[in-house]
Amino acid sequence: MIEFTLWDILRNLLLATRWTILLSLVSFIGGGAVGLGLLFLRISKRKAFRVLAKYYIELFQGTPLLMQLFIAFFGLGLFGIDVPAWLAAGLTLTLWSAAFLAEIWRGCVEAVVRGQWEASASLGMGRLQQMRYVILPQALRVAIPPTVGFSVQIVKGTALTSIIGFVELSKAGTVVTNATFQPFTVYGLVALIYFALCWPLSKSSQILERKLNVAHRNH
Count of domains in the chain? Predict the structure, then answer.
């Protein structure tokens, strides 16, 4: 029987952590890009665009992420489309993240006083110019803390991708446990690694929120 040292276990978990970090970054960046597009649709003057974005957001917020992963991985297979686990995981988390980020940012845009819209319109600015030069710079200050805070949910959400066979930290924990028969040690280390990933993000979100609130009061 092969003996596994603590370092052997930790090394294997850290190797899998790379994929957790990569998947989180892809999901956050991709979700941010799609979410920004959804934001513009959500606040569009055209009702059809607003309704389309609203239904998209409600669909992804109102259904479990686990179910979305199953549909992306197994559902497309019913049509003869072979979807790799990494592609299904990245695509699903990107679309899921976009729905939440779009709503976070919409709330931040709506927090900008209506007078800013009216003042920029009186200067002859179009809708895109208003957003680019007046609204988004102000909404950005409000949006940073909740956006950073949501990134924690993305990191934790990657754990669900193990159900479709994507080997990230959680899946690696299961594999190592089956090989070592040391579940307490393995999952204890998994928990510590997740904490090491999420705590700095959560803490920075709280610090940013406090700083921005103080700056807003002083202003």
Answer: 1
Do 164 and 73 contact (CB within 8 A), yes or no? Answer: yes
pTM: 0.90
- Within-domain flag for 1: no
Give yes or no for a contact between 72 and 91, defined as CB atoms under 8 angstroms apart.
Answer: yes
3-state secondary structure of 2: coil
Tell me, what DSSP letter sits at residue 75?
I
**Residue 105 near residue 139, CB atoms below 8 Å:** yes
- Which is it for the CA torsion 194, 199, 205, 206, positive or negative? positive
Minimal CA–CA distance to 140: which of 36, 30, 31?
36
Show the domain range for 117.
6-218
Tokens found for residue 121: 């319109």
Q: Which CATH number do you get for residue 37?
A: 1.10.3720.10
pLDDT digits (tens, 9 = 90+) for 186-218: 999 999 999 999 999 989 888 877 776 644 555
- The sign of the CA dihedral 177, 21, 152, 218 is positive
Give Cβ neighbours of residue 166 (< 8 Å, ≥ 6 apart).
19, 23, 85, 86, 88, 89
